[in-house]
Amino acid sequence: MTPARTVAGLCLLAPFLGILWVDSYARVEPTLIGIPFFYWYQMLWVLISALLTLVAYRIVRHEQAATARLRTESPRTAESGEER
After folding, report:
1. Burial 57-75 (b: 16+ CB within 10 A, else e)
2. pLDDT exceeds 70 at position 80
3. Spacing of C-alpha 14 from chain mean position
4. What Rg, from alpha-carbon coordinates, does the chain have?
5. Tell me: the pLDDT tens digits for 31-79?
6. pLDDT at 68
7. Distance CA 7, CA 67 (A)
């Protein structure tokens, strides 16, 4: 596994850890616009999860593009005349 994929995996793991540890947010205070912490914390994780999923997607796509570029620019394939 590459370091980029590890970072992408951690981006996808963070929301699970943030939501599954219920004791950390099972309370009423502090409220936000009259909304108890328990609810707005979970709604905040919806936005954070979307952003982290986007980051993970971009990391993986960038790595795939770099790998494809390396395959097409490989000197060994160009010398032997092989095509993939």
Report:
1. eebbeebeeeeeeeeeeee
2. no
3. 8
4. 21
5. 999 999 999 999 999 999 999 999 999 999 999 988 888 888 876 655 5
6. 86
7. 17
Helix locations, 2-82, DSSP H: 3-20, 37-72, 75-80
Q: Do the beta carbons of residue 47 and residue 18 sit within 8 Å?
A: no
13-39 pLDDT per residue, tens: 999 999 998 888 889 999 999 999 999
Domain boundaries, the chain: 32-76
Q: Is the pTM of this model over 0.70?
A: yes
State the number of CA atoms in the 13 A half-sphere of 5 facing the CB.
5
Residues paired with 32 in a beta bridge? 35
Q: Which of 47, 54, 40, 45 is nearest to 19 (CA)?
A: 45
Q: What is the signed CA dihedral for 50, 51, 52, 58, rounded to 10 degrees?
A: 110
Residue 38 in contact with residue 26, Cβ under 8 Å? yes
